[in-house]
From TrEMBL:
The keyword Transferase applies. GO terms for molecular function: transferase activity. It comes from the Bacteria. It comes from Paenarthrobacter aurescens (Arthrobacter aurescens). The keyword NAD does not apply. InterPro entries: Amidase, Amidase_dom, AS_sf. Keywords: Transferase. Belongs to the amidase family. This is Glutamyl-tRNA amidotransferase subunit A. Residues 25-450 form the Amidase domain.
Length: 479
């Protein structure tokens, strides 16, 4: 039987509505779990139990009166710290901003609370969410519950670790180069990068077409549940598009779909265990009735990295420099390196050069996906990252030295192809004892298809009952 702290959101809602479980009971189990094991993984910046418990009691009263009309009523949600809560700290991991308070709720927080969700904990990030690992001078190192030697990834690493450890059934995340999909991959959870404009962000960087806020969960259905709540037009974000029909993942709808399998996305040096697990997912989809055909793409990690950092050089990099002016000595080394790389890329390339590179990549992807309903590929070429590393000198990827750690991850092309929905789902276990994941990439704004395919993978290769073993939380050993 599933332990209460690992109960999925959809099941919990059903139990609430049948009066078989109280939102207070679920929350109390999560509080106990957090108090028991968070010391070993450090996934949270703060807990909000004093506000969450009264909210859970109110939700229980509403269920008792038959007033369960909001989609998340009584469900605990862990919020990424960058998603501000009015009156609470909004530091984004910066020591110099540790006392800064949010003036208002972030749009996704506003929607979660309106839907009855209860924010009971906030999750760690690297500084300004700009790294592929999750550690900072302010909060320390966040570790992967599956093996504490390794990172849960970044920048939504706290959310991924919290879900994997049983701290919440749902969590918020964000993604500008893979910051949702990488933590999902490394923690055995599900992460969704929505098409740009689907989910509202916070001005002014809501206008950055690489970025997007979104959901993480332990199941495909729960991820869709939270995505449905988050999505739709918002007056504070001019880029948001018209509301879409709610997503309802159905594995039965996969039969006959055509899926392009691309292992390397060009020349990414994919590790053997990552490749084997990706092919296992492709075989599962074939068994579910999909037609899977392997393709190649003409991309290189070097060109993708150049394109990405040119973009960062004109938007995120300058914004980070504004945020950190005067506090440079207090910054993590990876933050200083990121800003320097972005600055150098802007000096070497004009903004229009970046746009030309972006549209070339987008066109190549569209051509490769012609005749297919979706594309399947790994989320990361490397199966793991050390928890406390900075990777300032690059990374060894399957015996090949790469000059920048982002060149080891296969997520950024789909921030460049920013209207494509991408769902990251577990694909298996790496040789080092932590999960691996795949990306399911859809055509622009075809969110439903990636969720149907994700549900089929989940049905064929169930992962919901696989969790980190309790002894791992006592030290830094793996399974």
């Amino acid at each position: 039987m599933t332990e209460l702290h690992y109960l999925d959101a959809s099941t919990a809602l059903g139990l609430f509505r049948r009066r078989e479980l109280s939102p207070v009971e679920l929350l109390q189990s999560l509080i106990h779990r957090i108090e028991e094991v968070n010391g070993g993984i450090n996934a949270l910046t703060e807990t909000l139990f004093e506000d969450a418990l009264p909210a859970a009691k109110k939700a229980a009263v509403r269920y008792a009166r038959g007033r369960d009309v909001t989609p998340l009523l009584g469900l605990p949600v862990a919020a990424k710290e960058k998603h501000g809560l009015q009156g609470r700290t909004l530091s984004q991991g910066l020591v110099a901003r540790r006392d800064t308070l949010a003036a208002a709720n972030h749009p996704v927080i506003e929607r979660i609370q309106r839907a009855g969700g209860i924010i009971h904990a906030r999750t760690t990030t690297p500084e300004l969410s700009c790294a592929t690992v999750t550690h900072s001078p302010l909060w320390g190192v966040t570790r992967n519950p599956w093996n504490q030697r390794f990172s849960p990834g970044g920048s939504s690493g706290g959310s991924g670790a919290a879900l994997a450890a049983g701290f919440a059934p749902l969590a918020t995340a964000s993604d500008i180069a893979g910051s949702t999909r990488l933590p999902a991959s490394f923690t055995g959870t599900v992460g969704y990068k929505a098409p740009y404009g689907r989910i509202p962000g916070l001005a002014p960087l809501s206008a950055d077409h690489y970025r997007g806020d979104g959901p993480m969960a332990r199941t495909v259905a729960d991820t869709a549940l939270l995505a449905n709540v988050m999505s739709g037009r918002h007056p504070g974000d001019h880029t948001t598009v018209a509301d879409a029909a709610p997503m309802a993942p159905d594995p039965a709808l996969v039969a006959g779909l055509r899926v392009a399998l691309c292992i390397r996305l060009g020349n990414y040096p994919v590790a053997p265990d990552v490749e084997a697990n990706t092919r296992r997912v492709a075989e599962a989809l074939t068994a579910a009735g999909a037609v899977v055909e392997e393709i190649v793409l003409p991309w290189t990690v070097e060109e993708i990295s150049r394109t990405m950092f040119t973009h960062f050089g004109y938007l995120l990099g300058p914004a980070m420099e504004d945020e950190t002016a005067g506090s440079e000595p207090q910054l993590a080394a990876y933050t200083r390196r990121f800003m320097a790389d972005a600055r150098a890329a802007a000096e070497a390339n004009r903004y229009v050069d970046g746009l030309r590179a972006e549209t070339l990549l987008q066109g190549q992807l569209a051509e490769a996906m012609t005749g297919f309903d979706a594309l399947l590929c790994p989320a990361s070429a490397v199966p793991a990252l050390d928890a406390d590393a900075h990777y300032l000198d690059g990374i060894d990827a399957n015996g090949q030295y790469l000059g920048h750690y982002w060149q080891a991850h296969m997520t950024a092309p789909f921030n460049i192809a920013n209207r494509c929905p991408v769902l990251a789902v577990p694909s298996g276990m790496a040789d080092c004892g932590i999960p691996t994941g795949v990306q399911i990439v859809g055509h622009p704004f075809d969110d439903a298809t990636v969720f149907h395919l994700g549900a089929a993978v989940e049905s064929a290769l169930p992962w919901a009952d696989r969790h980190p073993m309790a002894p791992e939380f006592a030290g830094h050993a793996g399974i």
